[in-house]
Amino acid sequence: MDSPDEAPAPAAPAGERETRVHRPAALPLPEPEHVPWRWAEEFHANACAGPGARLRLRTRLTAASWFGDVETASQALDALVRGTIREARLARDQRLTVRAFILPTNELVLETESRDDARAAPVRRQLVLPPLRSGPL
């Protein structure tokens, strides 16, 4: 085991790579100081917020050459944005912060947070998506 987050895996058969088993991490994950890529933007809490965030994330992940499924990640962010607006009961003139960053393990973290000043605690949602492969082929 290289780190405390890894559980021992059964020995791989001869000639095959060993598979690491990760324990689930508690969410929300704090953003590390050094990440290969990050993006943050604020949106008005209206019907265009989810599709707008989806389109912007898809473009940025493609440009960043993330090794995961960009379309699935952008659809997941759209759902997170819509869910946060619905859960926080945000009005159209209120703001919503959307953040995304790629961890050094190449996992993508998507995060939304309501910006309602009247609430004591903002509604915060986070989702971690694994890469499809570990690096370039």
Could you describe the 3D structure shown?
With 137 residues, the chain is of the alpha+beta class. Helix content is 26%, strand content 24%. It has 2 helices and 6 strands. The protein has helices spanning 49-64, 70-88; strands at residues 6-7, 21-22, 37-44, 95-102, 108-114, 124-129. Strands 3-4-5-6 form a 4-stranded antiparallel sheet, with helices on one face. Strands 1-2 form a two-stranded antiparallel sheet. α1 (49-64) runs antiparallel to α2 (70-88). The longest helix is centred in the middle third of the chain and has 19 residues, at 70-88. The model is unreliable at 1-9 and 19-24 (pLDDT under 50).
Give a concise summary.
26% of the residues lie in helices and 24% in strands.
Q: How much strand?
A: 15-25%
Residues in helices, as a percent range: 25-40%
Lateral strand order in the biggest sheet: 3-4-5-6
Q: What is the string of SSEs from the N terminus onward?
A: EEEHHEEE
Shape: globular
Number of DSSP helical runs: 2
Radius of gyration: 17 Å
How many strand elements? 6
| Main pleated sheet | 4 strands, antiparallel
